[in-house]
Amino acid sequence: MKNGGYKQDSGKVEDLISELKEAEEVYTELPFAYKEGNDIYNGIIDLLYKKNNKWFIVDYKTNLDPSE
Fold first, then answer.
1. Percent of the chain at pLDDT exceeding 90
2. How far is the C-alpha of 46 from the C-alpha of 62, rounded, in Å?
């Protein structure tokens, strides 16, 4: 895979592969847990990467119909 992504209306990166090649750190399927008061939230971060000292979280929705 040399490039990848769908056209974004949000102004976000379209070519994610190129973005990740330039990233300082990249993690996939990263478990997380977060506690707020008595509530604990946990899950899996699909993609987490650091570029220009900023962290970005990407959450894939593979069952989303792109025509909607």
1. 54
2. 11
Sheet holding 54-58, edge to edge: 25-36, 39-51, 54-58
Give the whole-angstrom CA distance, residue 46 versus residue 40: 19
The C-alpha atoms of residue 32 and residue 41 are separated, in whole angstroms, by: 8
What is the model's pTM? 0.68
Q: How far is CA 51 from CA 40, 43, 45, 57, in A?
A: 28, 23, 17, 11
Side chain identity at residue 41, one-letter code: Y
Other residues' Cβ atoms within 10 Å of the Cβ of residue 16? 19
